[in-house]
Amino acid sequence: MRKRSFFGLSTPCFKYELATDASASPVAIPAPEQVTLYIKKPFKQASSTLKVGTPVQTGQRLVLNENDDVYAISSVTGTVCAMAPFLADYGNAWTAVTIKTEGNEVIDPEFSAAAEAPSLETLTRFLAAGPGEPDFAPLMDERNPVSTIIIYGGNADLLIDTSLYVLKNNIEAINAGIEVLRKATGIEEIVIAVPEESVQNYSGHLDARIQPFSSQYPYAQPLMILNSLTGRLPDETGMASLGIHFLRAESVAAIGKAFSTGCLTIEKNVTVIDKQGVKHMARAKIGTPVAALLKAFGVEVNDQDKIIFGGPMTGNAIYSEDLPLGPDTDAVMVQDKSIIPLYSDYPCINCGDCVRVCPANVPVNLLIRFLEAGQYAEGADLYDLYACIECGLCSYVCVSRIPIFQYIKLAKYELGRTLSAEEMNEQ
Amino acid sequence: MNSKKTLIVSHAPFWHDGSGIPERSYHTIIAALPAAIAGIAYYGAPALGVICMAMSTAILWELLLNRAMRRPITVGDGNAALIGLLLGMMLPASTPWWVVLVGTFLAIVIGMQIFGGIGANPFNPVVLAIAILMISYKGHLDFDAGLVNFSLDFPTTSEPLAALKAFGPAAVEHLHPLDLLMGRQVGGLGSANGLALVIGGIYLMIRGIIRWEVCVSFIVGTYITAMLFNMADPSRFADPVFHLLTGYTLFGAFFLATESTTSPVNFVPMLIYGTLGGVMTVLIRNIGIYVDGVIFAILLINLINPLVDKIRPKAIGKVA
């Protein structure tokens, strides 16, 4: 928990972590005894291709049924030892596949055959479950053609080193990835977004336009970058409506590496932030349980501590040390129970700190009154709910300790549910 | 897949800057204390009695209402104590105990709790209570009548604003601004010492607890309006410095107009709100029937607060 300064006239200001030459090379985490991978599809009892006991190879596509387009990439060689339904955040139902590792690693040959000629189909078929979890669907959507790909070099949250580290140390792979993307999609306009202090590290080496953004939080949130480039925020159809698509630097590096070596990347860089706030860089197989990762750095987790996937402002708290590292987990942060901030049910006293700190000019003090009363539609219509870029600064400064960010997420979720229910009724 | 350890799960953000309502209240109390202590130094034990009575009864009323309405006990946040202190500081040192009791009832119960407690009051509870007291118990709130038995070594033994209203600027010409600033004037027991109030106000401003825009624009509004009146007819209207240093002006600027619930949060609305408060204060003093206009001016700007706060910057990403 960061403290408010004695002089409270200025609004709190955070800087993103910047890439330094001194950053240590990542610690390789040894392959764990078992890995858990998520296939983002509800689990049905009968899976035609995966059962307990099915042998899998490293880099193999794991699908629940033939011809499924939702898959996971196995990061180890071994046998499936458990399959279970998994309830992810916001009520998403997925399937958790646990694989028991065996000694020698065998690489699945399917991708190397397909890697000869880069195409969108190959990308969609093999790389969508890789590091950074790139989404290729908007690139194939013909109704909303994408004209610009933004490679997102900064980190969306504080304390995280991952993205800039990858960008700094994998320039060749990223160049190869950019080339693959150009060939596969035909999109010429590829922009790399990095914090302005880091620009000189990259310009000239990369085959794309470098777009600096402010290194002050939250100006590197994807929505904030989008707004600074276009002056708009996406409507309900997503970023595709603006013709811009975001990919993380790590995804692009993974794409470049995969096509130049013929092997899929099954490892992921992760920043581990321990209880004292000290950062470690790790490189682990996707699906490694968090416990194995924390053990490597001697981080002890006790009852009532908090483990967070992602940074302190926008991450997700997880409920068990056995949960695995996902392809999009950039950081794992551990908080001691003594510093976990608590929220309260006090009403808003209209102090205005949230309004002054909000980078999106949302009238938070008025919005929260409607959200607390459950009037989500009014909040969206009158008080700019959808201008919120979800940086969490309002909750961070709230004097009444109202869980403002939580209410905003809830409102967006509930409105989304109502809208989809209405659409279903219309059909 | 579940381990034995129980982890805390919550939604982001996982940091908080550590601010809270108790800190705000207690820092405001600390900022108000110099002026209160100066008042006790001038008026002695009766002043101390009024302040103690006001703070304790305010806390008791809040506790009683919390109990009666079966709501969580909120006296610990310091807001009731703050309201009691501010109310006590605005009363004359001679106020009888039952007037103080009624005053804190009006502030805590009528001004705040019946609307739902902290954050829900449409008017500043202290100002509302003083306004009702001023109208209901005119004699007890009359500083000249109340302090008649006190031996004060002030340059004037009548309230400057009352003297101005009754006899015109000539009657207050002999008052030196320095005396007024140091609190050597008849007035509220804690609201007359300008220097202590300014120190407390600046402390609150740099701590970011009150918004400087509101106090500065309130003072500027008062000054400019008083200056215009004075320029138009110096024989009928006092000079602006006199208006700044007498009555509740500085107390209102730093401690009353800035009450967070009833004041706007956006930049331009804060300026409008404060300036209008200052303008109304001088208008009521110079052409109204009341001696001091601060109370009614603040009630008035409390009323326009929701309206002016609609002037706000456009949220990002809005095309239309």
From TrEMBL, chain A:
UniProt-listed InterPro entries: 4Fe4S_Fe-S-bd (IPR017896), 4Fe4S_Fe_S_CS (IPR017900), Ion_transpt_RnfC/RsxC (IPR010208), Nuo51_FMN-bd_sf (IPR037225)
Keyword Transferase on entry: no
Annotated GO CC locations: membrane
Iron in keyword set: yes
Classification via Pfam families: Fer4_10
Taxonomy, superkingdom: Bacteria
SUPFAM superfamilies noted in UniProt: alpha-helical ferredoxin (SSF46548), Nqo1 FMN-binding domain-like (SSF142019)
Keywords for this protein: Iron, Iron-sulfur, Metal-binding
Name of this protein: Electron transport complex subunit C
PANTHER family: ION-TRANSLOCATING OXIDOREDUCTASE COMPLEX SUBUNIT C
Sequence ranges assigned to domain 4Fe-4S ferredoxin-type in this UniProt record: 338-369, 379-408
GO molecular function: 4 iron, 4 sulfur cluster binding; electron transfer activity; metal ion binding
TrEMBL record, chain B:
The keyword Flavoprotein is assigned to this record: yes
InterPro entries: NqrB/RnfD, RnfD_bac
A biological process term (GO) from this entry: electron transport chain
Pfam family, one: NQR2_RnfD_RnfE
Entry keywords, A to Z: Electron transport, Flavoprotein, FMN, Membrane, Phosphoprotein, Translocase, Transmembrane, Transmembrane helix, Transport
Alphabetical list of PANTHER family matching this protein: ELECTRON TRANSPORT COMPLEX PROTEIN RNFD, ION-TRANSLOCATING OXIDOREDUCTASE COMPLEX SUBUNIT D
Protein name in the entry: Electron transport complex subunit D
Organism annotation: Desulfosarcina ovata subsp. ovata
